[in-house]
Specification:
Rossmann fold; 211 residues; 47% helix; alpha/beta; binds adenosine monophosphate; 8 strands
Length: 211
């Protein structure tokens, strides 16, 4: 089964992917993480993506699709697409790329959360430099301040998690990614997440996917 986690920045896609991989044996394909790895390794792709990402803008579709296409050559089943597709053109391209391997997107999980909650989540978010797990300085603190519970990595604020950039990212999401909700109408399961814990959201996802 291949699924997409759809939702605004800060809706908890990364957190849910992490648990779904751990408990339900999916493999996460996060385009944001792939870009950040390329930036850390100073690859040409990373250098190209960095300028867009630092402004809170999307990396162009052709660059993003190519990166995903390369990944799919070695793995195209049991995937969670986290942060991809983000535009209708990417979604159409993904269908074509998966068809090469006789694969499809089975379900699209839409994590729905109010904009004001998204903003407060993102402004307090810190992520592990090593494993990329997310914490929050108020609502999801690690046992030792600034250190990842899982692997002892340093917790850092992402460069695009500053208030002005978050605003841009939410705007870009509403303009370019929200149309995917109707694009995927037939495959969509909507998870209302306001006021729910990550564990409750996870349980709703598992139930709605029947897995
Ligand atoms: P994320 O970690 O998913 O929040 O992504 C961080 C940033 O990476 C985004 O704000 C974009 O600049 C870039 N990015 C990640 N995925 C995509 C995508 N599917 N299309 C275009 N840009 C992307």
């Amino acid at each position: 089964m291949n699924i997409i986690l759809l939702g605004a920045p800060g809706s908890g896609k990364g957190t849910q992917s992490e648990v779904l991989c751990e408990k339900k044996s999916f493999t996460q394909l996060s385009t944001g993480d792939l870009f950040r790895n390329n930036i850390a390794n100073k690859t040409p792709l990373g250098l190209e993506a960095q300028g867009y990402m630092n402004q809170g803008l999307y990396v162009p579709d052709d660059v993003t699709n190519k990166m995903v296409g390369d990944y799919l050559e070695s793995n195209h089943e049991g995937l969670i697409f986290d942060g991809y597709p983000r535009t209708v053109d990417q979604a159409k391209e993904l269908d074509l790329m998966l068809a090469k391997y006789d694969k499809v997107i089975d379900k699209v999980v839409y994590i729905d959360l109010d904009d004001s909650v998204l903003m407060s989540r993102l402004t307090g978010r810190v992520v592990c430099e090593i494993c990329k797990r997310s914490y929050h300085v108020v609502t999801r603190k690690p046992a030792v301040e600034g250190i990842c519970d899982f692997d002892g990595g340093k917790l850092v604020t992402r460069p695009d998690d500053q208030e002005d950039k978050i605003k841009t990212r939410l705007e870009v999401y509403n303009n370019q990614t929200a149309p995917l909700i109707s694009f995927y109408e037939d495959k969509l399961v909507k998870i209302p997440s306001d006021g729910k814990t990550p564990q409750e959201v996870f349980e709703l996802i598992v139930e709605s996917l029947g897995i």
